[in-house]
Amino acid sequence: MKICCIGAGYVGGPTMAMIAKQAPDIEVRVVDMNATRIAAWNSEVLPVYEPGLDEIVKECRGRNLFFSTEVREAIRAADIIFVSVNTPTKTYGVGAGRAADLRFIESVARTVAEEATSPKIIVEKSTIPVKTAGTIKTILAANARGVAFEVLSNPEFLAEGTAVADLLAPDRVLIGGERTPGGERALQTLVDIYARWVPRERIVTTNLWSSELSKLVANAFLAQRISSINSISALCEATEADVDEVANAIGKDSRIGPKFLKASVGFGGSCFQKDILNLSYLCEHFGLPEVAEYWHSVVAMNDWQKRRFTTRIVQALFNTVADKRIAVLGFAFKKDTNDTRESAAINVCRDLLGERAQVVVYDPKVSAEEIRRDVGCADADGARLSVAASAYEACEGAHAVAVLTEWDAFKALDFEKIYAGMTKPAFVFDGRNLLDHAALAKIGFRVEAIGKVVSQGQ
Ligand code: NAD
Ligand code: UDX
């Protein structure tokens, strides 16, 4: 059996590497039109940083895992074609800023129809609006030359930074298909591949539309929990309740559960915001404005939380950060990834630069080039952004340190040393509630955290 995956990104690369590892008899070809990305997958430094991924790719690459730009050739040869292309928020025309941009999905469907000369199973791996499988089927049917296609939905639930662990032991694998004899056969083929390492009871099969919709709903529910606890963090700051204590107390209720209740500077990542906006847009499209508004508020609360963080920095620093050096520790949207898409750090840096601060960023995995590109350094504000080679370098001479990513290494920093090198009074704004606030206050720092009031030092 031959598998091809179109799209060698954060999802396509790791998911296919896992299939290749678990099914050495299946040839897996990951293709992408981005030659630089493919070259990186074939090099020593992979384009995606994920703990444990290098080992798997090294084990399988050249054996039954191949990365190439030969999209058409891979389509012709494959029995199963995973579509793992990007589905970003549309930036133009109807639905701009909310709807999913499906041009990459449609382009792949047309290429598959042009190239296929034997039966194919098309698997939607990308996150797409419910009913997209209908569009794919229509395009395939209109352009196929007698070739039989089956379309399945198999959304991916991995989280970045834990992709390998998530793929190895997923809570569930979801596969949606048509309840026709051909659809059932295709569904079973995919179930059998996952069943090589995933217990059968964790492989959930549904109709196409339930599967497509479940992905958007899962992300909306997860993000909703973060916005909920973040909204409470503001109330905690006003009342001297402690948001971590509140989260712990409510999370002990088995009906609520402890996960995804960590208050923060705001959620980031390529999925949550995009998928909720998409869900909200779909609701409106289907004549449900109240439902659309309900889900949109999750994103609105997140935007507010990000802005609120910068406002707190400005207010604490005596209502001006102009020409003050602010060290930003962490730029990735979460720890253990080099991904910066929709990272709260981007907003915070831009807002601080807009306040005329000198912003110095350090992140252990994100390149200086990426940081500059994300913040946008073309104007005078951008000229005040710099990137440091270490946390200590970033903090040297700073008026304040803002922790924006929860990298473990930040917990082990020598804050006595950092304090000694900073302008006084020295502030720490912990956007992740990562550090030992009492210890920092004892050193002399003025500490501001999310959803709690910290007893201050000098
Ligand atoms: P990505 O941008 O990292 O990768 C997508 C790749 O597809 C790019 O390298 C791009 O060059 C390639 N591509 C686009 N059109 C192509 C075409 N016509 N032919 C060949 N290659 C093409 O995106 P990603 O983060 O891997 O996400 C992919 C999909 O998976 C999205 O729909 C996303 O919502 C979903 N998803 C992402 C995550 C995540 O954690 N990143 C998790 C679950 C689901
Ligand atoms: C998310 C979903 O978890 C995953 O199932 C889906 O496939 C893709 O989208 P990801 O964006 O990679 O995964 O990371 P996730 O761990 O969900 O974190 C998203 C953002 O929320 C990060 O910025 C993270 O720091 C933040 N977060 C997460 C919080 O602020 N508090 C929490 O309690 C959890």
Automatic annotation (TrEMBL):
Classification via Pfam families = UDPG_MGDP_dh (PF00984), UDPG_MGDP_dh_C (PF03720), UDPG_MGDP_dh_N (PF03721)
Residues involved in NAD(+) binding = 7-12, 32, 37, 85-89, 126-127, 160, 271-274, 341
Keyword vocabulary terms for this entry: NAD, Oxidoreductase
- The question of whether Oxidoreductase is a record keyword is answered with yes
Instruction: Domain (UDP-glucose/GDP-mannose dehydrogenase C-terminal): give its ranges.
Output: 327-437
Sites where the protein binds substrate: 156-160, 215-219, 255, 262-268, 333-334, 432
Q: Which residues form a coiled coil?
A: none
Reactions catalysed: UDP-alpha-D-glucose + 2 NAD(+) + H2O = UDP-alpha-D-glucuronate + 2 NADH + 3 H(+)
Give the pathway: Nucleotide-sugar biosynthesis; UDP-alpha-D-glucuronate biosynthesis; UDP-alpha-D-glucuronate from UDP-alpha-D-glucose: step 1/1
Q: Which GO terms describe its biological process?
A: UDP-glucuronate biosynthetic process
EC number(s) reported in the record:
1.1.1.22
MF-aspect GO terms: NAD binding; UDP-glucose 6-dehydrogenase activity
NCBIfam families on file:
NDP-sugDHase
- Function summary: Catalyzes the conversion of UDP-glucose into UDP-glucuronate, one of the precursors of teichuronic acid.
Please give the family membership noted in the entry.
Belongs to the UDP-glucose/GDP-mannose dehydrogenase family.
Q: Which protein, by its recorded name, is this?
A: UDP-glucose 6-dehydrogenase
- Could you tell me which species this protein originates from? Cephaloticoccus primus
